[in-house]
Amino acid sequence: MHTSSLLAILSGAVTFTTANPLQRRDGPIQGVATFNDYATQFKQSGTVCGIAAPANSNYFGAAASDISGITAGACDGTFEGPQQNANYNLSQCDPNNPGYPIGGYVGPSCPKTQCPDVSPTCYKVDNLGDIANPPGSPTGGSITVQIIDACPAGSAWNYCKPASIDARTRCGSYGTNELDIDEGAYVQLAGTSYVKDVTPNLNIQITKVQC
């Protein structure tokens, strides 16, 4: 979800779903989980923390939305606070390839606050069911993630996605505790292997734990 370098804040308008911000706390809070292939991403563009996976092989890598209540800080070019008409640069979206940035686009840089060489952050994540339904009770499927990356709302890889895509699943929902988790975790959470654009994203319960 992250690539290095800077993103300028220019004109244009994108509407993001807003929510009341959640205060950072150690007790269980609700959120949503999306899924990403971090091994491939790391080869293509790297991660904020410069690793493709946590050192603990039992943990999974994850990125936190940079406008969520559990973020370590906003990435360059991202608006902090509820912005229903946040001004992102739509000229960075490819008109010939809807949903994607233009060729050569370079995404924003993000703070390394939660990286292993600073102060690693880990969360226990419990499955609360398909995101299309209201959150239920924990299903018994749980994992531990370490934050190795950030998911910037101000990245064209996110804000260029069609408005039909739930803002909670593209890091564009202020206050939603979104974790973009390594897709290898899906089978432990949901009991089935992850298939892009087929298996559903999940409601989750998030509890801070020691790394």
What's the structural blueprint in terms of helices and strands?
Elements: E1 29-36, H1 38-44, E2 60-65, E3 122-130, E4 142-151, H2 156-159, E5 178-182, H3 186-190, E6 202-209
Parallel strand pairs: 1-5, 2-4
Antiparallel strand pairs: 1-6, 2-5, 3-4, 3-6
Shape: globular
The largest beta-sheet arranges its strands as: 1-5-2-4-3-6
- Summed up, the helix count is 3
Radius of gyration: 16 Å
Helix content range: under 10%
Q: Please give the oligomerization state of what you see.
A: single chain
Written as H for each helix and E for each strand, in order along the chain, the element string is: EHEEEHEHE
Q: Termini distance? A: 22 Å
Largest beta sheet, briefly? Answer: 6 strands, mixed, barrel
Structural class label? mainly beta
Percent strand equals: 15-25%
Overall mean pLDDT stands at 83
Number of strands: 6
Low-confidence stretches: 2-24
Structure description:
- The chain is mostly beta strands.
- Helix content is 8%, strand content 22%.
- The longest helix is centred in the N-terminal third of the chain and has 7 residues, at 38-44.
- The chain is globular, with a radius of gyration of 16 Å.
